[in-house]
Amino acid sequence: KTQDQAISGETEAPEFWLQYQPIVSLKTNRIMGFEALIRWNHPERGLISPADFIPLAEETGLIVPIGQWVLRQACYQLSVWHQLISSPCPLIVSVNLSSRQFVQPDLVNQISQILQETNLNPRYLKLEITESVVMENAEVATTMLQQLKSLGIQLAIDDFGTGYSSLSYLHRFPIDTLKIDRSFINRIDIDGENLEIVRTIVTLAWNLGMDIIAEGVETAKQLAQLKALKCEYAQGYFFARPLNCEAATALVLQGT
Ligand code: G
Ligand code: G
Ligand code: MN
Ligand code: NA
């Protein structure tokens, strides 16, 4: 249980913890990794969504220690899972990075240190950065992404398709993965319009040598459409909701 103990260091239910949502290979039907998602149970106000508190933590700067804790916890947990399994292609963990974290001058050092402390091979850590965060700082972003990449970690553009993407930048960034925003996925089983958008993003990723993950897959029909488009990976309630550590560990042990 100790790995669940959070910032507060309490021995009872922690205020902060991570959930892990499986990311599935559509070719093999196996879990290729998990996205780590922070959860906050406020002592008086109960569960508060990260969609609400992350922007606030960004403003106050608290996102920096919170973000470091998330990274360390996620890397530690993955390292534990790697010791539990002997899979030929080990799991990855994907961690969201917010705007303020992304522009910290010592981010690369922090991550490097966390990888060492948790004894995690960098190739199994992926950072998710939204399209808008990258594009807001396009010039600085190129340098930062290159430095992060040189650690040997993987990089993903999160919520792809919702920002003002510049294709001329996209091909210059050392990006491994595009995560198609769920707003495009949630209607591909209803209208053909988003189907063409998703097809285009899949082709774009393929042409740029990037992996593709469809987010927010909720129905069998959406999954079938994605398979027909040769989308490689998917994530969403259809497969699994974000899971507590115990439930995610059970899946890891099942070898799924
Ligand atoms: O998991 P959920 O749907 O509640 O997440 C809501 C939003 O909060 C999503 O945009 C997600 O990317 C973001 N989020 C979840 N966990 C983290 C985290 O650890 N760091 C950052 N920066 N954002 C997170
Ligand atoms: O912005 P980001 O992609 O990091 O957001 C991830 C959030 O999306 C997670 O917090 C998770 O709770 C939520 N999510 C994951 N799968 C689904 C899904 O199938 N449908 C919906 N509506 N939300 C999802
Ligand atoms: Mn994400
Ligand atoms: Na997203």
From TrEMBL:
It comes from the Bacteria. Transmembrane segments: none annotated. Residues 1-256 form the EAL domain. This is EAL domain-containing protein. The chain holds residues 361 to 616 of 620 of the full protein.
